[in-house]
Amino acid sequence: MVLAAVNGASSSCYQPAAQALLPQTVPAESRRAALALSRIASSSAMIVGASLGGVLVATIGPGWGLAVDAASFALAAASFALIRVQVAPPAPSPGLVHELRIGWQEFTSRSWVWVIVVAFCFLNAGITASFTVLGPAVADTTGIGRSGWGLVVAAGSLGAVAGGVLSLSWRPRRAILVGCALMGLTASTPLLLALAPYTWALVVANFVAGVGIEQAGVAWYSTLNEQIPEDRLARVYAYDDLGSFLALPLAQFAAGPAVLLLGLQATLYAAAALILLATLAMVAAPSVRALVPKAAEPLPASEDPVPG
Q1: Alpha helix stretches (DSSP H) within 61-91
Q2: pLDDT beyond 80 at 177
Q3: Separation CA 222–CA 134 (nearest Å)
Q4: What's the number of CA atoms in the CB half-sphere (13 Å) around residue 261?
Q5: pLDDT over 90 for what percent of the chain?
Q6: pLDDT digit string (tens) for 126-175?
Q7: Among 57, 91, 203, 216, which is least packed by CB within 10 angstroms?
């Protein structure tokens, strides 16, 4: 448990820094494609890593398999150390509180940012409770089984790869609105677990949900990269992570007692309702509906477009 807590804290430091690093390594016109490729690689690695892990456990044993896994993190650290970006000379820091205040101002000054983050706080809680905690329990007590549930999980990763490939060529004008709306697809998992816990249905639903999640992820991160000043991007990402994942421990703790109190089906229905209500809150927000990429914004009335 101590090591898990350290790992979670380390990941919280890593994610904002890594996301803010991308705009410093590629030109502005290529950032969306670079982000999509990065997420495709991540989703593909999840699939390959799971398969490779099974092979290692079967051939050299679980202990050595975990040792190889640990070595992969050292390789990742070495890869990050090789990245070279141009940064401004460090200025004297005015203090942690001041830095937090600047990040908070950037985070709260755009209503579409905090609306989406608050909505994802509830949306992620519904997904975590239904998919991570209750899904395996349903699989163990129905015809799905553990092998079937593995197929369901793999289908989500495959859907994420497909969604990343799609985002390379398809960018809706209101990408962030479309991405938020597609998150409603994730409600299909708890609904099917409650109504029709069949492996084939869950595989299809989770694949489609994976496509939607990836569209939302690419739209979200590319929009933040475009709208937030580069020197304050990591701070906004930090508040994004904090808000988006704040409810996850509570959802993990509450899923079991909720089943004892309400029953399994009612808990799954509640998780699906939470996901759908959070999605509706995002797509109904005027600031989310009005947001378009800067490249798609019309010129002011006083400016004429340059001919040719």
Answers
A1: 62-81
A2: yes
A3: 32
A4: 7
A5: 27
A6: 999 998 889 988 888 888 888 888 888 888 888 988 888 888 888 888 88
A7: 91
Q: What is the pLDDT of residues 64-73, one digit of tens each?
A: 989 998 899 8
Share of the chain above pLDDT 70, in %: 93
Q: What share of the chain is helix, strand, coil (3-state, %, to 5)?
A: 85, 0, 15
State the angle between helix axes of 264-284 and 188-195 in degrees (0 to 180), rounded to the nearest 10: 160
DSSP secondary structure letters along 156-225 = HHHHHHHHHHHHHH---TTHHHHHHHHGGGGGHHHHHHHH---HHHHHHHHHHHHHHHHHHHHHHHHHHH
DSSP code, position 116: H
- The pair of structure tokens assigned to 212 is 């939607």
Which residue segments constitute the domains of the chain, with CATH numbers given? 27-52+104-293 (1.20.1250)
Question: Using an 8 Å Cβ cutoff, are 225 and 303 in contact?
Answer: no
For 36-149, list the strands marked E by DSSP.
none
Report d(CA 184, CA 102) in Å as an integer.
Answer: 33
Rounded CA gap, 198 and 226, in Å?
A: 42
